Amino acid sequence: MKVLIVDDSKTMRSIVKNCLGGIGYSDVEEACDGQDALEKVAQCKPGLILLDWNMPNMNGIDFLKAYRAKGGKAPVVMVTTESEKARVIDAIRAGANDFVVKPFTPDVLAKHVNRTIEKAQAA
Amino acid sequence: MQPNDISPFIKATKSVFDTMLRLPVSFGKPTLGQSNIPKDWHVTGIIGLSGDLVGAVAVMFPRLTAKACVEALAGMEVDFESEMFADAIGELANMISGAAKAQYDGKDISISCPSVIVGSGNTFHSHSNTHTVCIPCDADGSSFCIVVSLQNVVASESKVAA
């Protein structure tokens, strides 16, 4: 399964990529903001998207709304510092499937990724 | 600024360093004002705050401490000149500010994308209507500091309540 990591920080993309590699997901595409992600989803058809919130050009929520509006079905896990209740509700309403708050350990990210994929496959 | 105004930033720094860098952090006594802000450190990551909390957060490092922290975060050797070095400092500032912001649940606070300054001789100057606190930190024997510069939170809360 291809996983798309969307984060403006190259360091964070690298950390997330290493975590994914540790649980067997090595087919990874990267995007540096929402606009870039919209182009990448059209090309690579990911099975899972890991999405930051605060990014230049187009933020994560605007990307998510645009992606779902275009019929994008891949489960989306928000990986972000935005953890206030109102933000979580906004993200879920926009179509997010799960939420990982930065800072996180590799184990926490792995648990949320595996759970999200299992739920998507069961649906 | 009240003493408990900066506790979210101390908790956030500890959480980020424990979780993402696996470096234990200890904290010295925070000081009010700009006189104790280091003037000769090499690397600064800055995040702006707006909304119900207005101001800025700066994470300031000497050169070698910055490199050690970046490499602990990235899990690899990172050159000073590389794009990833400044990127990692910005992400550290972003995570500390974001984790602190989350502790002000119920307030509408936005954080900016990070800015990073690399080079000696830079100095932090805050806006005249802000209160500035310098929090000295030690990660595994290496000093760095968090500078929190905020408009008077008590006054802001009164304004919101009115």
Proportion in helices of chain B = 25-40%
Listing every helix as H and every strand as E from the N terminus to the C terminus, the arrangement of chain A reads EHEHEHEHEH
What is the percentage of strand-forming residues of chain A? 15-25%
CATH architectural category of chain B: 3-Layer(aba) Sandwich
* Rg measurement of chain A, Å: 13 Å
Coarse shape of chain B: globular
Explain how this protein is built:
The complex is a heterodimer of chains A (123) and B (162). In chain A, helix 1 packs across helix 5 (106-122) and helix 2 runs parallel beside helix 3 (60-69). The two termini of chain A are 17 Å apart. Chain A has a single domain (3-122), classed as Rossmann fold (3-Layer(aba) Sandwich), CATH 3.40.50. Helices cover 50% and strands 17% of the residues of chain A. With 123 residues, chain A is of the alpha/beta class. The relative contact order of chain A is 0.18. By secondary structure, chain B is of the alpha+beta class. Chain B has one domain (3-157): CheC-like (Chemotaxis protein chec, 3-Layer(aba) Sandwich). Chain B contains four helices and eight strands. Chain B has helices spanning 7-21, 63-74, 83-101, 153-161, and strands at residues 25-27, 31-32, 43-51, 55-61, 109-111, 115-118, 130-139, 142-151. In chain B, strands 1, 2, 3, 4, 5, 6, 7 and 8 form an eight-stranded antiparallel beta sheet that branches. The longest helix of chain B has 19 residues, at 83-101. The radius of gyration of chain B is 15 Å and the shape is globular. Chains A and B meet through helix 1 of A and helix 1, helix 2 and helix 3 of B.
